[in-house]
Amino acid sequence: xxRHGYEDTGRRYTLxxxxxxxxxxxxxxxxxxxxxxxxxxxxxxxxxxxxxxxxVTGVLLMFYYRPTAEYAFHDVQYLEFDIPxxxxxxxxxxxxxxxxxxxxxxxxxxxxxxGSYKKPREFNWSVGVIxxxxxxxxxxxxxxLPWDQLAFWAVTVGTNMARATPVLGHExxxxxxxxxxxxxxxxxALLGGTIVGPSTLLRFxxxxxxxxxxxxxxxxxxxxxRVRKDGGISGPL
Amino acid sequence: xEHFLELVTKADNVPIMAIMFLLPFFTWLAFSxxxxxxxxxxxxEAAQKDKVYVWPYxxxxxxxxxxxxxxxxxxxxxxxxxxxxxxxxxxxxPNPSKAPWYFLALQEMLVYFDPWIAGVVLPGFxxxxxxxxxxIDINPKGKGYYTLKERPFAIGTFCFGFFVLWIVLMxxxxxxxxxxWNLFAPWVKWDPHKVVxxxxxxxxxxxxxxxxxxxxFVGFIFVAGYYALGPICYLWKIKTSKFLQELGLVxxxxxxxxxxxxxSLPIKMALRWGANxxxxxxxxxxxx
Lengths: 237, 288
Ligand code: HEM
Prior knowledge:
The complex is a heterodimer. Chain A is an all-alpha fold. Chain A has two domains: 1-30, no CATH class; 39-229, Cytochrome Bc1 Complex, Chain C (Up-down Bundle), CATH 1.20.810.10. Helix content of chain A is 61%, strand content 1%. In chain A, helix 3 (43-62) packs antiparallel against helix 5, helix 4 crosses helix 5 (86-113) and helix 6 runs antiparallel to helix 9 (198-229). The longest helix of chain A is centred in the C-terminal third of the chain and has 32 residues, at 198-229. Chain A is globular and about 70 Å long. The two termini of chain A are 35 Å apart. The model of chain A has no long low-confidence stretch (mean pLDDT 93). Chain B has ten helices and one strand, in the order ααβαααααααα. Chain B has helices at 2-9, 14-40, 54-79, 104-109, 115-136, 152-176, 203-206, 212-237, 242-247, 249-275; one strand at 51-53. The relative contact order of chain B is 0.11. Strand 1 (29-31) of chain A pairs antiparallel with strand 1 of chain B. The structure holds protoporphyrin IX containing FE. Protoporphyrin IX containing FE (HEM) binds at residues 40, 43-45, 47-48, 51, 104, 107-108, 111, 114, 116-117, 121, 124-125, 128-129, 131-132, 135, 220, 223, 227, 233-234 of chain A. The site of protoporphyrin IX containing FE has 27 residues of chain A, from helix 3, helix 5, helix 6 and helix 9.
């Protein structure tokens, strides 16, 4: 646009999309109904926006936060009281994470109500379900990191269910008594210990800051690619 | 009342408050369009199939939408601080200990089922069931527009799960559960020493069965009988129902299994609230 001046033509509009790697997520043209707020509620896009905000603010938070039991809580306190805009940064990260959960729920609700999971979008719906879980898991692993009472006990309650996993949990039905114990069941694998402790903090930190965001990015890319491959946004035939 | 107000104004519960406004709004938005489409016979979108350029039309909407959302987020982040309580202390368990709000429906299910069902098996079926939806719903109608009339069963079932078993349970877990995971009405003061008599008994005991083996067997009959409703309906209707014939046996089995499993939660809740039933089926290995 800046290099050639701006011609008001369809060719220009098309090139605007095709010649830009970011815009290229979009098709050059789409059916008019897809523009209606009433149809998509913009919720998929808002989910993605919230994901981007958490990613940017999250990277900034990582500069001030050390995932060890000695430092974690005090780093958060330090961030809140001594770092310019630290509190705002933390607030934005937390509330956009919550916002992402709300938006993804509404997005799923919209996709169901418009029957957009039907042929040929079956596979993309399944990708979406995995993305829903990934969103919850991102939120949940982040919940532990402030290392305060709220974090500690919410995660304790949340991970306690894992001990009841059939076969693989030490209190689950059908687990082999001599083999699956408190210190080698699935809950242990998740926590890195028999209770939530320093190794849990490190595990959740790595999951939260590296593994799960990577997984989410890959799946979101797949999700967007499928939206295009399945013929763009759904609509009446 | 004070505890309820404290919960309502808690920073981490703001999202749930937001949902309580957003969800009714979007539900109204969806169903008013569905009603309009059903009445008109053709969806409103069918008249808008002509193509428009993404640049500038869609990009402009996306831009405006992003700005509005960022504004809301900025105001939210400036006015409400993220919570930070005392440093974690493994020796001091808060009562009640609650999971984050989006997991509270799962925590709520723990009241009615043992942890291996409520925490592992049912969530597994929820995920598997959601993924299966497009493959078991073979109704070709209602694709890409809002409607109610053309897919009442699909929408009814989904909305029941979404609203009653997820949102309502989440709200109950957030606002009405107090110490000891007891129910407290909003205007009641939380009493950490509230004693709720544990009078729950097994269904078979209630029916007068005292022998363990018999109880296990009768419990099995109940559960098996419940799931047999699926095949029974199938055999009863297959001759006359064109829909069932098109659906096919495998899809039918999956749908009826998931459907019955979903409704086992409200049934168990009703049994618990109405008759203090603890378990329906007790075996030496697991209880349901
Ligand atoms: C991180 C989470 C997610 C992101 C960022 C995301 C993003 C998007 C976006 C931007 C669209 C384009 C249309 C729209 O905005 O509505 C879309 C469409 C779609 N999404 Fe998602 N989504 C996510 C999760 C989900 C979930 C949980 C589901 C369902 C279980 C889902 C299923 C679909 C389907 C089937 C479409 C195609 C809709 C149509 O063609 O009308 N997505 N998604």
